[in-house]
Amino acid sequence: MGLRCSIALVIVGALSLLTTTTHAQARTDGLYAIVSTTNAPARGAIAVTSEQPPDHPPLWMRTRRARGARAVLYATDNTNGRYRLLVRYTSRRECERTLLRLGAHAVASDGWSQSDDDCSANFGLDRALATLAAAHFDVPRQDRQVMGEALRGTFAAAARTIRSGSDLEVILTIRNPPAASAIKRFVGGRQRGPRNNRFTFVIERDGQNIAPIEAMDFGGVGGFMDVAPGTSGEVREHLSRWGDITAPGHYVVRCRYETELTGPQSDPFDDARRGERWDRTFEGVIRFTVRRP
Q1: What number of other Cβ atoms are within 10 A of residue 72's Cβ?
Q2: d(Cα 74, Cα 82) in Å, to the nearest integer?
Q3: Model pLDDT for residues 268-290, shown as the tens digit of each residue
Q4: Terminal CA-to-CA distance of the chain, rounded, Å?
Q5: pTM here?
Q6: Beta strands in 39-168 (DSSP E)
Q7: Which ranges of 81-226 does DSSP label H, i.e. alpha helix?
Q8: Helix H or strand E encompassing 169
């Protein structure tokens, strides 16, 4: 009888310890406003390793508890391996850099913003941390789903032969077969600069790679357009923006175009539907000849 009582006491004690640990963890998990950063341990500071290379010591951040936040969590790649946690604060007092603590992990926000109507912080998370964040904030983890599989893209050169000094347009035709579902694709977004950087071209002349022209973009206006079943659309780009095509010879160009898809009724700019995106890449090869003037 005494043995049974001892076993019972051990079990009760273990359950009590587990409950106490769980409650203690729940009290420390959450959002903290970053007050200061130091390279050495400090009283009350939290160690953050996410911003340091693996062979560097952690940063230590002094913080205060941040409150009054609404969270949105959504995948940022097709494999559902990376996520974005967007935290919107209800108090403008919290409009500053933030630390997210989940169990043994502490992650600093990699972006934050404020305006007259809104203040927010952003975190990049892997799948494991996203799962913890979804449970902590009691929000869905918006995973991506495959869409637009039937969509096809075909590259073509505007001419098979051009004279030296002339430019060449590359034409991408995107088709949605008649039996396919309706879809929307993103147009724009990487064209504020000297060219449309949704394209990438690797140019060869007579079997030798041509040095690429580098050109940055600064985003740009963009949005989703409908691609109904049985319809097609074109996207064009000047090849001379990507490399020197003035020398005579036979050219082979490996073409690539990146876009994003969403459902016909979706609005991935809406917080509740941010996961309704699918990255799509079209690839192809064109050939042409440059002749002397």
Answers
A1: 19
A2: 9
A3: 999 999 999 999 999 999 999 99
A4: 106
A5: 0.81
A6: 46-48, 59-65, 69-75, 82-89, 98-102, 105-108, 111-114, 119-126, 152-157, 161-163
A7: 127-137
A8: strand 169-176
